[in-house]
Amino acid sequence: MGLSVSDLHVRFRTRSGPVHAVNGASFAVEPGEIVGLVGESGCGKSVTARSIVRLEEPGEIVRGSIEFDGTTLTSADDRTLRRLRGRELAMVFQDPETTLNPVYTVGEQIAEALRVTDDPDSQPFVGELLAGVRSRFTSRANRGRVLELLADVGIPRPGARIDDYPHQFSGGMRQRVMLAIALARRPSLLIADEPTTALDTTTQAAILERLAGLNEDHGMGVLLISHDIGVVSQLCDRIVVMYDGVVVESGPTSELLSSPAHPYTKALLGCLPGRSEPGEPLPTVGGSPPDGSPPPAGCIFVERCPFAREACRETEQPILELKGGRTVRCDVPEARATDLEARDESSNSTDREEGRTATLAVDGGVQSASPTGSEPTQRREGQSVLSLEGVTTAFRTSDALVDRLLGTTDRLTAVDDVSLELRPGETLGLVGESGCGKSTLARTVAGLESPTAGTVRLQGEPVGAVDDRSVAQLAEVGVVFQNPGTSLNPTRTVGESLEEPLVEAGWSGARRADRVEELFSLVDLPDAYADRYPRQLSGGQLQRVAIARALALEPSVLVLDEPTAALDVSVQATVLNLLGELQAALGLSYLFVSHDLAVVRHVADRVAAMYLGRLLEVGPARQVLSRPAHPYTAALLEAVPDGDALASESGLAGEPPSPTDPPAGCAFHPRCPLADDRCTHREPTWETVGDARSRCHYAKSCADEHTSTQHDWKQHD
Amino acid sequence: MLRPVLERLGSLTIVMAGVSLLTYGLIFLTPGDPAYTILHEQRGSPPSDAEVEAFRAEHGLDEPFAVQYLSWLTDVLRGDLGTAYTRSESVNVLLVQHLPNTVELALAAMAVSLALAVPVGVVSAVHRDSWIDRTSQLVALLGVSMPNFWLGYLLILLVALSLGLTPTSGSGTLAHLVLPAITLGTGLAAIVTRLVRTSMLEVLDAAYVDTARSKGVRERLVVYKHALRNALIPVVTIVGLQFGFVLSGAVIVEVVFQRPGLGTLLVDAVFARDYPVVQGVVLLTAVAFVLTNQLVDLAYVALDPRIEGGERT
């Protein structure tokens, strides 16, 4: 029984012809099993998930069938579907910002699910409308059950939160509410589509742990859809890998991760920054990703496969059964047999032999693979390019005139007394949970916010906000934002976007044209792209343009605010490689803001951990990320999904306190496993541990404790 | 709850001061001497200079602008809008006499347009690109494009004269109200239909609508409980703003249907250069405009919990 998807084809009709999203996916989820469905964006995994609950519109299922416990979902009528959705198949969507209805209280939204579950066929029209209107004002019959569910998914003080609206919850708490809505149905299968992608790693760890618990307690099956193999491997019994709408490989988690059989699975695993030496170029997947055109006659991966043969082009690959319940869609024994490390070595050695071999990277950029990160210690001399002294950036929480006149507004201190240095040629990784102030710090450095106290110095000169900076000072800092889709003006061609900083700096027309051409070659994009509009480029290409724009005025510092967070792992690999090359070639210093510690470990020379606007630990990446001398850094590290079993008992409990009302003593003490009386009363000063500094009363013992537990991070030392 | 109300009263005062200064200033700058025009009209022959001087002195028209304005403003603050030049009634009395008819018309027009627009907009959005949607879009386009005086005369010709179903002009009964309300409401209905449709289409694409469907909620409830309430939030703003245009449209419609109301009062006063009446009507309209916007803000708070203002955050 359970769920079985066979030969599913889903198509979208668009003006420019049909988009083939799913091209014959087949897999099954047994009752009580946790199955992970992985693949890059556009591989059809979300469409597959939505098809299971029959919410595939505007797509249409053109072939294949989906069966659940004997019911064929693909041909079921509306009533049957509503029944199944209400009682058996629950779905959790990706972005908790948008998946809860903003105008109803969370209590009502959970209660509604309960009412539907109790009697899917009743749903009185007027009664339901009224339930929405009066939800806040009267208690309801289901209140007790709703409170239970809220407690069950780990929302503190459910009684106080039940009548709150979604916008009053943080992202992690909202996703818990979504889980509560799903659990209200006592489903036998939960379909979770990227449930933690929009969340912090610490919150992600908590949500995943909750999912695992629910599976154990209620025997609920889970289909976990994710682009993040780390997340999937942590939780799932089995993994299904999808590429271009087809399942290319499936099997038990540990076997699939340790000896992947399909070339795509191998390539995907190779792109993960956590699997490579820090600073080394990451392996990338050659060729360009599928674009929804009709699948080729032969193997769908043929264009990007290093093992492709002539026969692969013409004949569809059969599904082979391997031992241990694994299946793979590849008929080339050599491709299946070559293991991951061997492939890495062979590709690296060709790079070394041929120097800068140009290969077409995943995002269509011409990528030159040259080893980077060589001797990072050599570029650590001289005066710091950027230094911060006691920088504090605070905002008013209300801009209303009356509040300003009366002085009644609270001040939110986003960055609190931060002192940092960035040395020439160095990458400083700035890490922390969302809302910890790392983006505000980056914006302050870029001059987009002005500090309320303290000094920002560029090349030793104190600078203010953008308006107060000289042309030369403005040229010193380039900024790359997280989402290239929104940081480039959609009404300008990318060439015009690149030219803009040059125009502002007063460059002549001819000089500008030369520089734009140069910039395109710096970021490995063909300069014919100058006339294209942002919507005509892929995410990775756009981020290359954004990097080129930041480089336009030959800065010495790049502020990179989550530059790869919005990208797929394979694209992330090419962008990280590009950043590494540019740093080596141009001697740039990077302030690299990221919540992804695997990425930071790969790129950073030094790491600074931020919490509630304060720095809690600063030091060399190798030391900080292997022997954290602050419990906060340790907790961040533990939350990184790395294929190990969930380390729940030491994970970060709760959420960061409000920055308008920071706790007394050590800001971290309410969530700290080591906290005692001293921490609640006295703010710790900087303690030196090895080459790092930590603001913790127990810095040394914390570092010692983690020396023994964090061995997998230490391997790379 | 008190603070936001005080804040709004504060901004209301500022807006009203601006509006009064502007209307008073504009009238002051208008070419043509009211004293001369009014006396000419009353006596049927050109008045003498002495008579004009006397009229000016009587109504304070010989004072400098600032003095005139301030004395008018102090009277207004005391609740006295002055006396009409051409009639013996005070402006207050005239407004009170004419206001109810206009309010009746405006509300009826709003009711007609909303009763039509919201269901049609929702149905169009739900059945996107169907014949229902195309037809309603086409009708909405016609509705927006038709000038309302033209539609008014058309309705008079067809419904009142040919079919004899309603009186052609005047006021007092429900039958008198039907044609003017339809005339005035059509334009608004067309705008709101398109707005509801666009807003619904956007909301129906939202992830929380899928959440509702994935819960097993019936499609009709998905549309009316989950989508519509969200879709109405932008609609409320536009409807509120449009209320001002309904008032100005009432001026024309009242003239077309010969309905006594603020519109006819204003038009007569403008032709007669009866400035105190013009100022009174404009000021009253401005107050109505501002108050409607305040009401819209309050409606917002009721519809959208994300907007603060009295709600606990």
Task: Describe the protein's architecture and organization.
The complex is a heterodimer of chains A (717) and B (313). In chain A, helix 8 links the parallel strand 7 (189-193) and strand 8 (221-226). Chain A has 717 residues and is of the alpha/beta class. Mean pLDDT of chain A is 83; it is low at 342-380 and 710-717. In chain A, 35% of the residues lie in helices and 21% in strands. Chain A folds into four domains: 96-184, no CATH class; 254-369, no CATH class; 377-603, 3-Layer(aba) Sandwich (Rossmann fold), CATH 3.40.50; 621-714, no CATH class. Chain B has twelve helices and no strands. In chain B, helix 5 (91-126) packs antiparallel against helix 10 (219-256) and helix 5 (91-126) packs parallel to helix 12 (275-303). The model of chain B is unreliable at 309-313 (pLDDT under 50). Chain B has two domains: 2-77, no CATH class; 91-303, MetI-like (MetI-like fold, Orthogonal Bundle), CATH 1.10.3720.10. Chain A binds chain B through residues 50, 53, 55, 78, 81-87, 90-91, 93, 95, 98-103, 105, 112-113, 116-117, 120, 123, 125, 128-129, 132, 165, 167-168, 178, 181, 185, 400, 402, and chain B through 3, 6-7, 10, 206-208, 210-221, 224-226, 229-230, 303-306, 313.
